[in-house]
Write a structure and sequence with these properties.
With about 350 residues, this protein is of the alpha/beta class. The protein has a domain at about 30-265: Alpha-Beta Barrel (TIM Barrel). Helices cover about 45% and strands about 10% of the residues. It contains 15 helices and nine strands. The strands form two sheets. The chain has a seven-stranded parallel β-sheet. A two-stranded antiparallel sheet has the order 2-3. Helix 8 (about 150-155) packs across helix 9. It is globular, with a radius of gyration of 19 Å.
Length: about 350
């Protein structure tokens, strides 16, 4: 079969819709940077949030892995806290640490310093997407945003957390404040995604970094309604929605029911098991262990072939890592993985 020059008819979008594809599409989470020397060079002297708000840099960084690896999609270069910063939240990204706040959220008064996100707050995001889409041509751009739970955790903890004790304490101790905060974050994430789609993104991914720290009962009561509302806000957008979380094997069934076309699977779950857990009727994305890219090539090749074989049980499969590219990954190995996926799946 052939596809047209329209990114909406690209292998990635077709796979996300469960349609026939000429080969299994592949892209990598955190492909836009991290392991690429050209990324480190262009980022030198520019902090993360500044880079994410500079269209020239965003465009170039987003395109770099597409040029180098010939992946089937670009992922928009940004960070999940960009929309928070755009609303006026005093948040920074410390190298080697992650997002940090000097004054974490603890009370209802703090909610008042988190306004809704409007398009006029992020004109640079729309401009970056338009430029990227123009350069990409038939290659689709994936827009993305952080899910409400993960954003809430950063706001409450003041940064990355190993146990999320402050988050869980507020969640259970003041459920009304928790739900009000997540409702505001739902609006912010949805608005951020809508701006990207309206500017030309062909798919979106809702990324929940920390949901795997929750019990299934807590996820269902405190998180799922807000993830579902975020994805529902894009239901009429015409683009496929991907939902991915880290360590979420026990939550896959619920996440798949949040209103998404594709469920992302991290590397801790066998892809075949994941397909069975979501009922076998949904396209999947995943799920090579990023650490295995450091193994001998025969190991990498064996695992890629296994994942491709397991992915055939789903109506659509987008090959990816089971989390982000590690910074010391050899870019040559990533390129070889793309070539192998295309070669094996097109037979």
């Amino acid at each position: 079969m052939t596809t047209t020059a329209d990114p909406a008819d690209s292998p990635l979008v077709r796979a996300a819709r469960g349609e026939a594809v000429p080969h299994t599409p592949v892209w990598f989470m955190r492909q836009a940077g991290r392991s690429l020397p050209e990324y480190r060079e262009i980022r030198r002297g520019t902090d993360m949030l500044e880079a994410c708000r500079t269209p020239d840099l965003v465009t170039e960084i987003t395109l770099q892995p597409v040029r180098r690896h010939r992946v089937d999609a670009a992922i928009f270069f940004s960070d999940i806290v960009v929309p928070l910063e755009a609303t006026g939240v005093d948040i920074d990204i410390e190298p080697g640490v992650g997002p940090v706040l000097d004054v974490p959220f603890t009370s209802r008064e703090d909610l008042e310093r988190l306004p809704e996100l409007t398009p006029d707050m992020i004109p640079d995001i729309a401009e970056s997407v338009r430029r990227i889409v123009l350069e990409l041509g038939p290659t689709p751009l994936i827009g993305f945003a952080g899910a409400p739970f993960t954003l809430a955790s950063y706001l409450i903890e003041g940064g990355p957390s190993k146990n999320h004790e402050l988050t869980k304490s507020l969640m259970h101790g003041d459920p009304q404040l928790w739900h009000d905060l997540c409702a505001r974050l739902t609006q912010i994430s949805a608005a951020f995604l809508k701006v990207q789609v309206e500017a030309g993104a062909s798919a979106i991914q809702l990324f929940d970094s920390w949901a795997g720290f929750l019990s299934r009962a807590d996820y269902r009561e405190y998180v799922l309604p807000h993830s579902r509302a975020t994805l529902a806000a894009l239901a009429d957008s015409g683009v496929p929605r991907i939902h991915f979380g880290v360590g979420t094997g026990e939550l896959l069934t619920d996440m798949a029911g949040a209103g998404t076309e594709v469920i992302g699977v991290d590397y801790r779950v066998n892809l075949g098991d994941a397909i069975a857990r979501v009922g076998g009727g949904m396209p999947v994305q995943g799920n090579l262990d990023p650490a295995l890219l450091f193994a001998p090539w025969e190991v990498v090749e064996r695992e890629v072939r296994r994942i491709l074989d397991e992915g055939r049980a789903a109506p659509g499969h987008i090959f990816n890592l089971g989390h982000g590219v590690l910074p010391d990954t050899d870019p040559v190995v990533l390129t070889r993985v793309v070539e192998l996926v295309h070669e094996v799946s097109s037979r």
